[in-house]
Amino acid sequence: MKSKQIEEGLQFTPKFNAEGLIPAIAQDAETGQVLMVAWMNREALDYTIATGRGTYFSRSRKKLWKKGEESGHIQQVQQILVDCDQDCLILKVTVDAGQCHVGYQSCFYRALKPGSDKDLELIAEKTYDPEATYKK
Amino acid sequence: MKSKQIEEGLQFTPKFNAEGLIPAIAQDAETGQVLMVAWMNREALDYTIATGRGTYFSRSRKKLWKKGEESGHIQQVQQILVDCDQDCLILKVTVDAGQCHVGYQSCFYRALKPGSDKDLELIAEKTYDPEATYKK
């Protein structure tokens, strides 16, 4: 398919990488906070589109990962956005309190400022106790 | 380095993939809109931290890409966030009108809804004329 069709067309032709995966950003549909970034294979994307439930491919476990199947922290997908060259997705999701397995609402709970000494600063507080959640 | 240190520590130890790259999400620091996703190598990340200017590694051109060097649409980086396993970054950026080379403010100008027929819908209007910009 030509570049112009991919960039300007309305046909959804997601481009998976050599491992058959495409990165997907989960973004809170209400607040705009980026919650996590994970990968999808074709099956995970089709399942997400069919069910509206955020589903990924776990690269460590090498299998379909229905987000929340263990933790209960599911994602209801309102909208799926695709970028210009169709090799990255955003899922606009509705979620409960706690999307990161470490205990925070977002996986992005640490930050640094340009020009600083490259140490991270904690920018969030935990919203749930992961030990209680995952040891159930 | 142990998983707990990577996840809970304040040492910045970004994990680059087999190609020496880490994905970076540029997010508007004011509006929360995700503007683009690109890749950084070590040099691009160090340059971004040192200068506060959003800089990536172009996989197509195989070289450092100081965002805006051709288009003028630069990114002033306010903050760099890292996720739990330190293999993905968010750059909180201040930008002008137009970050995508196709002419939109964001690369994510098309979307579909779960349960739909998988055709995309245009969800944005162009904010500048890329032909005028890139033919200068």
From TrEMBL, chains A, B:
For this UniProt record, the keywords arranged alphabetically read as follows: Amino-acid biosynthesis, Cytoplasm, Histidine biosynthesis, Hydrolase, Magnesium, Metal-binding, Zinc
Which GO biological process entries does UniProt record here? L-histidine biosynthetic process
Spell out the InterPro entries in the cross-references: PRA-CH (IPR026660), PRib_AMP_CycHydrolase_dom (IPR002496), PRib_AMP_CycHydrolase_sf (IPR038019)
Query: Under which EC number(s) is this enzyme classified?
Result: 3.5.4.19
Q: Does the keyword 4Fe-4S apply?
A: no
Which Pfam families does the entry link to?
A: PRA-CH
Positions binding Mg(2+) in this chain are 83, 85, 87
Q: What is its main location?
A: cytoplasm
Question: rRNA-binding: is it a keyword of this entry?
Answer: no
In alphabetical order, the GO MF annotations are: magnesium ion binding; phosphoribosyl-AMP cyclohydrolase activity; phosphoribosyl-ATP diphosphatase activity; zinc ion binding
Its annotated pathway reads:
Amino-acid biosynthesis; L-histidine biosynthesis; L-histidine from 5-phospho-alpha-D-ribose 1-diphosphate: step 3/9; Amino-acid biosynthesis; L-histidine biosynthesis; L-histidine from 5-phospho-alpha-D-ribose 1-diphosphate: step 2/9
Give the note describing cofactor binding and stoichiometry.
Binds 1 Mg(2+) ion per subunit.
* Domain Phosphoribosyl-AMP cyclohydrolase: from-to ranges: 36-109
Task: Identify the cofactor(s).
Answer: Mg(2+); Zn(2+)
Cell location: Cytoplasm
Catalytic reaction equation(s): 1-(5-phospho-beta-D-ribosyl)-ATP + H2O = 1-(5-phospho-beta-D-ribosyl)-5'-AMP + diphosphate + H(+); 1-(5-phospho-beta-D-ribosyl)-5'-AMP + H2O = 1-(5-phospho-beta-D-ribosyl)-5-[(5-phospho-beta-D-ribosylamino)methylideneamino]imidazole-4-carboxamide
Family, per entry:
In the C-terminal section; belongs to the PRA-PH family. Belongs to the PRA-CH family.
Q: How does it assemble?
A: Homodimer.
Role of this protein: Catalyzes the hydrolysis of the adenine ring of phosphoribosyl-AMP.
Q: What is this protein called?
A: Phosphoribosyl-AMP cyclohydrolase
